[in-house]
Amino acid sequence: MEWRFILDDIQATAKSFWQAAAGVRVFAFHGALGAGKTTFIHALCEEKKVKDVISSPTFSLINEYLFSEDGVEKKIYHIDLYRLKDEEEARLAGVEDCLYSDHICLVEWPEKSPGLFPDDTLHVSIETVGNQTRLVRIREN
Ligand SMILES: Nc1ncnc2c1ncn2[C@@H]1O[C@H](COP(=O)(O)OP(=O)(O)OP(=O)(O)O)[C@@H](O)[C@H]1O
Ligand SMILES: [Mg+2]
Asked: What residue ranges line ligand 1, CB within 6 angstroms?
């Protein structure tokens, strides 16, 4: 499954992405520097109508976003592993606690710590296609 979009269409793409990925909890976003991972993750959070952003005090590599769905309070973890030195640091920061929680996790730079991810992680790639277009693709592996 894949989507090509410009910024003007990012919300519609985010909506379609959530529909395609129904039931998935952990998402690993692969893509080069500046490919658009954070921008797309923010659009995904926007689509869930998140309320608060709570940054983790320790390493600020984990952000929590709260939203409600079907009258239930839920949480999204947005995790950026870019500055991570090793898996030990990920563990200390509580990344595994998030990845093995009941909550949705949207993770940038998963290749920094591939061993931490649950088997049923959905791997997604984001690429630049020309100046303004991005290609988001769900990997079939
Ligand atoms: N269609 C698009 N989708 C997403 N971003 C786009 C698009 N077109 C242009 N951009 C721009 O590309 C940049 C993407 O930056 P962003 O921080 O999202 O990338 P990133 O993959 O998270 O980078 P990093 O690896 O540094 O975390 C932003 O400046 C954004 O405005
Ligand atoms: Mg980013």
From this structure: 5-7, 10, 31, 33-40, 82, 108, 132-134
Give me the residue spans of the domains in the chain. Answer: 9-117
Residues present in the chain in total: 141
Kindly report the CATH class assigned to 9-117.
alpha beta
Name the DSSP class of 67. E
pTM: 0.95
What are the helix and strand counts (H, E) for the chain?
A: 4, 8
96-108 confidence digits (pLDDT tens): 999 999 999 999 9
Collapsing DSSP states into helix, strand and coil, what is residue 6? Answer: coil
Q: Who surrounds ion ligand 2 at CB < 5 A?
A: 37-38, 108
Give the span between the Cα atoms of 104 and 116, in whole angstroms: 15
